[in-house]
Amino acid sequence: MKYLQCFFLVLLFPFWLSAQNAMKVNARLVDSLHTIEIDQQITFVNTEERELVSIYLNDWNNAFSSKTSPLAKRFAEDFARRFHFARQEERGHTTIESINSAEGSSLEWDRPGNIEDLVRVFLPEPLASGDSITLNLQYNLKIPDDKFTRFGRDGEGNYKLRYWYMTPAPLDNGWKLYSHKDLGTQYVSPYSIEIDIDIPTEYYAASALDLTRTQTRKGFKTIHFSGDQRVDSKMYLTNTYIFESLPANSNKVITNIRDEDIELENKTKLLSRTFSFLEDRLGSYPNKNIFITQEDYQNSPIYGLNQLPGFIRPFPDGFQYDLKLFKTVTNYYLQNSVFINPRTEKWVTDAILVSLMIDYVDTYYPKMKLIGNLSDIIGIRWFHAADLEFNDQYQFLYMNVARMNIDQPLNTSQDSLVKFNKNIANAYKAGVGIKYLEEFLGDSTVSKSIGEFYKNHKLKPTSDDQFAEILQKNAGKDISWFFEDYVGSNTKIDFKIQKVTKREDDSLDVRIQNLRQNEMPISLYGLKDGKSIYKTWVEKVRDTKTVTIPRMDIERLALNYEAEIPEFNQRNNYKRVTTLLNKPIQFRLLQDIEDPRYNQIFFMPEFDFNLYDGISIGPKLYNKTVLSKTFNFSLSPKYGFGSETVVGSASFYNAHQFENNDLYLIYYGIGGSRYSYGYNLFYQKYSPFLVFAFRNSYLRSNESQRLLIRNINVHRDQNPEDPLLQPDYNVLNVKYSYSNPNFLKHLTASFDYQLSDKFSKIAVTAEYRKLFTNNRQINLRFFGGTFLYNDARNNDYFSFALDRPTDYLFDYNYYGRSQGSGLFSQQIIVAEGGFKSQLQPEYANEWITTMNASTNIWKWIYAYGDVGIVKNRHENGKLLYDSGIRMSLVQDYFELFLPVYSNLGWEVAQENYDEKIRFIVSLDIGTIIKLFTRRWY
Fold first, then answer.
1. Is the pTM of this model over 0.85?
2. What is the C-alpha to C-alpha distance for residues 908 and 917, in angstroms, rounded to an integer?
3. Which among 4, 92, 316, 706 has most CB atoms closer than 10 A?
4. What is the CA radius of gyration of the chain?
5. How many other CB atoms are found less than 10 A from the CB of residue 377?
6. 363-406: per-residue pLDDT in tens?
């Protein structure tokens, strides 16, 4: 039987080989123009069971040609500014000279739907199933700058080419047409390739293809590469040879990955170990060369290692280089031999890659800590983070997005993942899921299944269904839950022990509750003296399930005690049997990574600043860990060195998250604060609140909505020199907000209703920003507000403000809120009227409507203008306007406003002009951090 199978394989192999596409590329580098001239021949085979009337080609180099291409839109979604503001000559493009048939006749072509990186070639007659056609193409490539994707032409004149020549789009039950979106993979059917490339004599060429010959002529040389069953187009043309060729068992690794000054002998040993490990777990790599670069690693780094400054080396010599090599080699290994749809089924190769990384570290670095040798330093070693193993990072980083309720199913298309999920969390969830499956099965069948899948499907088109079929076949248990609940959904894993009952027969009845109604199994442990003395797996707990276990000497019961399961909340996993508490209480200095074995309370020093309290410092007592929680509290008393008294704040709130719903979050609580609002004058504010948060079901969209209902209670000290008419008040506030902030187009709007015993008012705000393709930006803001009734007209404390709100709700971070002159009076928060000049009347006790606008003059310098009507009782509405220069160093965070002309005339020529300048400054660390995290979530 074995020989018969081999006979059929030998018989069918030529037909399989003939079914692949073939390409010949004749290219010439014109370094002075940063272009490559190409004559290309494509022999395309129709592998579908239908006729084709057109052929689609990937022209991914042309994705750089426009600010409206799918690639450009992707950059904009990630708030990546470089591409939009780049010079035209820095962006690449493709100029197609001709597309002809083998007979030389010209073929019609277009870019379907004006998609820049796709080419559709119309065939002169339908191409029957199994038939082939040859196309001859002539085109020129303008190579983009490498600052956009790390590939392209760099500042040293090297050409790091990727996705440069055209390739046929794959046929897989229809055309699979994907645009370049800098996702790191291109979906193509494997093809044979021959490349002849002419380069200046001082240049070198490097590729994973087989180098067959080099011919040198006057002024240039021709290098010939070839390969079979290939899907990778990467090639480097460099003016110095920056690569080293290292033997690795029967393969050769061509690489320029930074090596931390590791000696050649040690590199070779590490590579040999890597390949031995992979060959044992997967099988041999089918091609001779593996071509891995620093850019490959930087586009898919080991997060954590790559964030450390170069002078900090907490790991043993060679460890970081070893893991860089292992990850990059394994990633290359899988991408170039497992031909799976990388857009929708990448979770398969991610799962294999990360699980192999976990096993590699467990094998060769079994005691490695997450922060390396830093865990031994006094002070750092007191943190729970110092206890974590290196491999704990995978579950931790996945849990980061799960707790934020932005995790996505593993089979979500790569271009629909938020950046953090695409780069980090989904791959880590996939790898941790494989280890979860291994722990549940309790044997080596998962590892054997991965090896079987690789050996059976190497260099063949395959799918995640075939991977699942092999796993299920070898499992010995029903693991359908893994594919349905773990891979195919973002349903969290969350169990708790509901009740423990002691039985007369010296056993325990343990009732386990599944808080998420799925079919995932959970591990149950019995603990004594903090160590496990019993373990079992409990399956099919859809709602609740009671299991009976031996009593033994168990003091506490715990679910998922060894954290082998990526569970949403491990803090509710403990139940006492003989102890006083389910878990002991632990106090820790500074915020730490969550330790579910304890009820943790943290404390840390915190400081604030305003003009009246000066610098205020005190302890902050709170329960929030690095990962978000559903219930949070914070107590922050401080001593104000300026006011010489205790100030501070406190808050308590609880959140309920809803998966895959427009209403994704409800949270409620109460918060309060006490600070100075003037010299020796204090306010106390407390406010219960309820918030409903909505968002777009497409998580890459920034569109969100929020409904806030709160009651603000304020008590203010009386000023003996200027008694307050209403020192104490409360305001019911209902506010609806819509937000869709993006790099190219920003839209926010809100409706605000306030009710108090003295007044009732409504206000509408809308803000729109647009960045055009010519880099011109316009900013428009509208505000309109009116009192429904107002019995507090004897002062303007509750009135609408033209330029600087009184902030009677104490929502804004004024550093000198009561100042009428001096530097702190010049702080502006663009709210209500949004004017920058101080004009009269500056308040409206009936209604107000304003429009604020600005447009850029040069980079971060803008011209602004405001116009509005202010209406007070018994007075006619007054038209007011101002204009000037806005210097937006960081928009909405650090800005200066220089008035020029207004109702006051030419302000720039008036006395004390420096007192007219207004500024925006944000010192809130959390607000500033959002500037950097917005591109990840």
1. yes
2. 10
3. 92
4. 33
5. 12
6. 999 989 888 888 878 778 888 888 889 999 999 999 999 999 99
Alpha carbons 528 and 523: distance in angstroms, whole number: 17
b/e sequence 655-664, b meaning 16+ C-beta within 10 Å: bebeeeeeeb
Distance CA 520, CA 547 (A): 16
In whole numbers, what is the pLDDT of the chain averaged over residues?
A: 92
Per the structure block, which two tokens stand in for 851?
């429009």
Judged against a pLDDT cut of 60, whether residue 462 lies above it is answered with yes
Closest CA to 550 of 572, 534, 570, 529: 534
580 pLDDT band, cuts 50/70/90, is: confident
CA nearest neighbour of 812 among 934, 616, 640, 677: 677
H helical segments located in 308-425:
319-335, 347-364, 392-403, 419-420
Dihedral in degrees, nearest 10, Cα atoms 666, 672, 676, 682: 140
Burial class (CB in 10 A: 0-12, 13-18, 19+), 471: buried
Instruction: Tell me the C-alpha distance between 75 and 446, whole Å.
Output: 38
Sheet holding 35-45, edge to edge: 93-101, 132-142, 35-45, 21-30, 191-200, 220-230, 210-217
**C-beta separation of 36 from 143 below 8 A:** yes
For 292, half-sphere exposure in the C-beta direction (CA atoms, 13 angstrom radius) is 27
> What DSSP string runs through 14-46?
HHHHHTSEEEEEEEEEEGGGTEEEEEEEEEEE-
Distance CA 77, CA 81 (A): 10
Reference 782, options 797, 795, 764; nearest CA is: 764
* φ and ψ at residue 548, rounded to 5 degrees: -110, 130
408: tokens are 């996505």
Distances (CA, A) of 712 to 165, 457, 673, 716, 727: 63, 64, 11, 13, 14
**Helices 264-281, 445-457: inter-axial angle, 10-degree rounding:** 90
Count of alpha carbons within 13 Å of 580, Cβ hemisphere only?
2
Residue in this structure with the two tokens 């020192």, named with its chain if needed: 727
Reference 610, options 656, 579, 567, 641; nearest CA is 641
Contact 866, 835 (CB under 8 A): yes
pLDDT single digits (tens) 196-211: 999 999 999 999 999 9
Q: Scanning the structure block, which residue is given the tokens 């009116």?
A: 786
Report the candidate in 417, 283, 266 with the shortest Cα–Cα distance to residue 352: 283
pLDDT at residue 891, rounded to an integer: 73
State both tokens at 449. Answer: 């299944």
